[in-house]
Amino acid sequence: MTQNDQITERTVGKNLVVTLTGQFTGGEESEEFQSILQKAAKDAGKLIVVDVSNVTYINSSFIGGLLAAHTSITRRGGSIVLASAPEALLQILRVTRLDNVFDLYTSVDEALDTPTND
Hints:
Structural class: alpha/beta
Number of domains: 1
CATH class: Alpha Beta
Distance between the termini: 23 Å
Oligomer: single chain
Radius of gyration: 13 Å
CATH superfamily: STAS domain
Shape: globular
Helix content: 25-40%
């Protein structure tokens, strides 16, 4: 389990839940998040739920890293989804059309309970 001021990681069954807090602007916090996702991507078929309910700001560096992780994880048969996105983040996802790339859930529990997550 990884834990710092901005990133908390926990395992739920065979799934990984990563909770993000604060700003993600391509600095150390984004590098640590990418490292967590790279490690998780090695587990084929794993569901990774990213809880973004407490994210206050993201920039293009973070979005690029998230897209790269999505590609890597899905190629290995896994999936990465976003949960509890605040309205400001949802607007960014809509404008960039990333709402068509990532499955979005209203809560972590909803993401973990999806039928494709058996």
